[in-house]
Amino acid sequence: MASDALYRRVLLKISGEGLMGPQAYGLDPATLDRVAGEVESVRALGVEVGIVIGGGNIFRGVKGAANGMERAAADNVGMLATVINALSLQNALERRGVATRVQSAVTMPTVCESFIRRRAIRHLEKGRVVIFAGGTGNPFFTTDTAAALRGVEMGCDALLKATQVDGVYSADPKKDPGAVRYDHLTFDEALARNLAVMDTAAIALCRENRMPIVVFDLHRPGAFAQVITGQGRYTTIEN
Ligand code: UDP
Question: Which residues bind UMP (predicted)?
């Protein structure tokens, strides 16, 4: 590990929207390539990287249910959306020469590996980026919870949540000009103030297992590597 990296192994959570770029739906090739470049630069620091990817750019179970679908069926569709994103990000990473494996919680052996914890750890140890697809594999969960779960299972030093803003604010900074940005929060503060960081199940899992969450802006070039070296703007949430 490079001496200036704060972490040995991290779990990066990217929402589906983070891959959408300027489009209103789906995947933007230029954005995929840029995100792949961010991951490549962190690998170059010697840090092991696991990624959990969302599916909201394609399908969300809650929205499907609101339109009349059975919730569990809609969530299964949402989980498949995360596989589409995972395979696309894998392709973008491998075009840059970054070795990757996709492991899905929803078994799909003709397109990717199935999630096997010990095998995933071995991939990370070998320097491969592991992209975890299919969320937790269960309906009624989110990919934020999947990120907390995989992060803990992989023994990650931190969960890095890439968002659309540079940290956690007291209110939505895009709507409220008086919103205050926090540098540091405890898990209890994040829960008590009902701050929109991650869902409660994800925060509780991180708190229980003492895995810090770092919230940063995916859209600022170089931000991922900066978080790894303790530079730039971000919010850390810990015990
Ligand atoms: N999903 C699920 N179980 C999981 C993770 C995800 O059923 O463990 C489904 C759920 O329908 C969700 C969709 O997959 O709406 C996409 O995930 P999410 O909304 O978390 O993606 P993001 O908001 O990060 O893009």
Answer: 55, 75, 136-143
For the chain, the average pLDDT equals 96
3 has pLDDT over 80: no
| Residues facing residue 216 across a β-bridge | 162
Please work out whether the CB of residue 90 comes within 6 Å of at least one atom of ligand 1.
Answer: no
- pLDDT interval class at 122 (50, 70, 90): very high
- Local structure of residue 53 (DSSP, 8 states): E
Distance CA 27, CA 53 (A): 13
ipTM: 0.97
CA of 89 to the centre of ligand 1 (A): 17
Residue 1 has pLDDT above 70, yes or no: no
Q: Looking at the domain assignment, is residue 29 inside a domain?
A: yes
- Does ligand 1 lie within 6 Å of residue 132's CB atom? no
Instruction: Name which of 210, 215, 92 is nearest 157 in CA terms.
Output: 210
The answer to the question of residue 227 being in a domain is yes
**Tokens 């929109």, residue located:** 196
Count how many domains the chain has.
1
Q: Which residues are annotated as a binding site for UMP?
A: 55, 75, 136-143
Ligand 1 lined by 151 (C-beta under 6 Å):
no
pTM: 0.97
| Cβ pair 59, 84 in contact under 8 A | no
pLDDT in tens, 211-221: 999 999 999 99
Range of the domain at 231: 9-238
Query: In this structure, is residue 3 part of a structural domain?
Result: no
From the annotation, which residues make up the binding site for ATP? Answer: 13-16, 56, 60, 163-164, 169, 172
